[in-house]
Amino acid sequence: MDLNRLLNPKSIAIVGASDTPGKTGCIIFNLLRKSERVLYPVNPKKESLFNFKAYQSIEELPDGIDMAILATSAKVSVSATKSCVDKSIPFVVIVAAGFSEIGPDGLELEKELQNVIKNTETRILGPNSLGVFLPKEKIDTIFVEHGDQALSNGGGIATIVQSGSVGVEALGYASNTGIGMRAFVGLGNKCDLNETDFLSHFADDQDTNCLAFYLENIEDGVEFLKQAKAASMKKPVVILKAGISASGASAVASHTGKLAGSGEVVGGAFKQFGIQRVYDDEELCDAAKVLSLSKPAQGNRVAVITPAGGYGIMCTDYIEREDNRARLQMAQIAEATKERIRRETFDFASVRNPIDITASADDRMFIASLDAMLDDPGVDIIICNAFFAPPGITDNLVPLIAQRSDITTKPILVFTNYGPYTDLHLKRFFEAGIPGFPSVNRVIRAARFLVERTDILNRRAAQFIF
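RE: above sequence
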């Protein structure tokens, strides 16, 4: 299915457009005024809105419109969708709630929507959808706060979510430290377009390098898994599947009016078909971040460079801890590498992995140790504990690490913690192309995501060989 007229429309109708501050139709219209697209506001009570001609009805709109946003009530959305079908508008985004998620009456309205578009070329995103946000295309229909300014520089992550609130809250928080978004799609109730449609689209999108999903149920599990298997050969597919417990599945039914599968079945299927599974919104954002920014890991041998010995020990504990996601091991540092680090740092530095260059180290010593690790063939992944409290460590460490990351084939991950300035430093690392994390647990988990991805590709390659 060609979704380009939905995700990169040239012309957009906003049904229920308004100039009343705070109204959904006003917020969406104002967001889309920044899109540089041709806009057609529809409001029967207005002749103009913000210097745009206002149309009294959908029937009065010109032909050839790519997408219609319905900022109307649930009941009105049904008749408005019928009018969009009559105008041959190919995509309709319905933001209204009040459909299957509220019970039998809402379910009947949702069935009416499906009947309206049956055997037509019009497709529906929603209802109960926040719509789409694509920074590169300057398309934004999300009428709640969603960190749009922080995310406006774009990136490679396509985020497809069934719950709009989970998506916007997770991305909004993640944007504090940097996350690169290619697209946000709010599936809503999925009366028509669903996760498989967008999986297929973004798997072939050259600007997307990672797909991240929040799903409460999967419409056609067999087809979705088939598409995911093919997609995972091209780029990472990460899924947070909610509603895996008995009570959680019941909550999904209340939230969406649909059933959810058990956790065991979901987990086994995801692993078999190359999907990387996460368990909360933080993991979803962290996995997408590291997989979209980092080079592939060639193995699971991790080296740690730290100016704080205690954090190096904690990293070691997390690296050697058993984990179902992927196994890591501490890299065995070559003797020549140890001597090289010792020459560039201090006699009292610990040159066994973790490499403790101590709080007396400066930028030059840190980078010299990093260069040695990059040249060591026994190291696959490097974790830099980049702390800025030591007097010799300066903000210049960020571009110095980034310079190495640009030319090496090894992933470099950063753990940093600097009190109230932590988010600022993590954002600087992100802007330099380095995935950074504010805790030992999260940076080691990020390394596991990379190794898990390598394991998936290796298993797929082995299947093709044999």
